[in-house]
Amino acid sequence: MLVSYKWLQDYIDLAGVSADELAEKITKSGIEVEGVEKLNEGMSGVVVGHVIECEKHPNAEKLNKTLVDLGDGEPVQIICGAPNVGKGQKVAVATVGAVLPGNFKIKKAKLRGEESNGMICSLAELGIEAKLAPKEFAEGIYNFPQDTEIGQDALAVLNRDDEILELGLTPNRADAMSMIGVAYEVGAILGKEIKLPNPQPETSSEQASDYINVTVDAKEDNPLYVAKVIKNVKVGPSPVWLQTRLMAAGIRPHNNVVDITNFILLEYGQPLHAFDYDKLGSKEILVRRAKSGEVIETLDDTKRTLTADHLVITNGSEPVALAGVMGGANSEVGSDTTTVLLESAYFAGGVIRKASKDHGLRSEASSRYEKGVDPQRVRPAAERAAELMIQLAGGEVLGGIVEADALEIKPLVVTTTLEKINKVLGTDLEMKQVEDIFNRLKFETAVDNDTISVTVPTRRGDITIEEDLIEEVGRLFGYDNLRTTLPIGSSTPGHLSEYQKKRRVVRRFMEGAGLYQAVTYSLTSEEKALQYALDEREPVKLAMPMSEDRSILRLSIVPQLLEVLKYNIARQNDSVAVYETGAVFLKNSNDELPEEREHLAAAITGLWESHPWQGEKKPVDFFVLKGIVEGLAAKLGLESQLGFQKAELAGMHPGRTAEITLNGTVIGFIGQVHPTMQKTMDLKETYVFELSLKDLLQAETSPLQYTAIPRFPSISRDIALVVEKATFAGDLKKVITEAGGALLKEVQVFDLYEGEKMEPGKKSIAFSLKYFDPEKTLTDEDIAKAHNKVLKALEEQTGAVLRG
Description:
By secondary structure, the protein is an alpha+beta fold.
């Protein structure tokens, strides 16, 4: 909500309180002021000028030579390139020495041989965004009304001497989405009375009921609909004060009738809509749910197909507005409008929110209806708008109002006690102080001994329970005035669970290994939902997603990490290593919430090591990532339980992919991303893994025990085994480890040969075996006995023979 400091003074005396001071007080009372913008900051020397003469520049077809009276002596010559400049206009002139936004200083100049003493300004050149300027002046200079005094400060005429407070409102504070609502808030903070409009428009003898009849079929969606009729309206530009107030609030002026409805929306927080009565085609307004497939063309010239979830305003047969969101093009107020039907209504927030979301239409009106408007302002807002249409559009207001009223307003009474207030806030307030706070808020109260009952005004829909009243007392008493106290009662020191401790170990290890932590979206697209999923269940779809790219809960982290790699590589960061610990979401068979499983995933690409001085470069490969997984397992004491077995998975390289097992159970995968996927995402050779972190961290581990450094020497034996090509080194290593017994301490693969000297279908794998006994020096006989058991087991279980 953008709040004009000057406009706010129409309702409350702010003498002695600057805009910055007011912003601080509002923030301390509970509504954050995100900033204060001084509209004329850095600008000076801009006055209202009168164009006496205007002719084409003799040496430039697109320039005009003007003579401008600035009201302080001889007229000055100014060269202007605006296509809409003309004789007799009142314009904003930046005089020589003036400063415009961006510290742009105006100097005397010669343009194509002609002297120019200043600059005739557009609104954009005075700091007003082009999208907020009236359309007829968006591409050229701004023309002031002819009764504007020459020589006066143009910035003051345009209300650029104002300051704008930007309120960061939470959804529950819909009451502050209007100038009157902000005035109530500021009045309570400063302890001052506020002045509210008291509209009493003069009416003619004709009755509005002779022109229109209102019927509401959807009473739950629209319990109150008020209509007024204004005849003999002259549609035209709004006065400057009205235009500038709208622009300061971020709304573009259109014409006096539409601008009045937007002004009331900002003033009262009550959306209004003006129909061209003669375009309605009937004397009836019928509010109903739309028919499925019904079409309406809205004011933005877009045809929209409706459903039964949407509420429409009709002329009895066809829609003329999408209720609470946007009017229809078939009843739009234009320059030829003479009779206006003014709508002021109370719509249920849910149905407006649904229509706004379905059609992608977020308007000032819908944002207020969604959060809730004050039902008791519906009629006063209509009266205020009618009064302004008399003043600014020469209209004639017909007698009476036509309405459909099924709204029951039941006053909400919330009760609390002085004891409870002081206990919660830690204060020693007296009842008189509490009463004073509620009186400043304009809340009706009744006191009975220690109990205070508050009748909550309808404008404050956020107050529903006792705690809300206590919060009001606390924020207006002043959070700074609350004493700092220690909590009373028993407490339990916080600590991490064993799972959380282990998860921290995992993160520190991954970072120590050289990977950066990533935090990616838990939502993904339908296209990526099943990619790299460890458990391919039906994905969980959001009921109301914000976009197609974020519509489904993820089943795998890898697709998001690949997006991280793609993002970095596109910005010339060619070597990237990232990991993430996060949840994936598995759909249950019933209507329960999805199961969340924590996974660990990583993705690496580019160079793993680079030593330019030594001229060494090591690109990432399968074994780099495999080493990280093995190192993590060793850190957790699970190296003996971890295994890898060849696999083929969708989206992964068919020859460089393995399943990760824990005690024989598959818990994840590791390998290279399929070349087709790499090409699609503009990635170089990329390796990933993903595993179930829960399974990894909940696995039983042996307690860590100290082992002394061996006193006796170890003995190594190397063996080269000839096996079938389909035989895995991991299977051979497992057989060797089991057969080697207590003396065999280490087994390492150090060579693989598949050259021309091998028999067809065969390969040679070489292992290094280390034996030692911590109690004695091994003899050749000890080694031979253990080694022969290994060779025999290899031959019997795998068919391996020693290479000659």
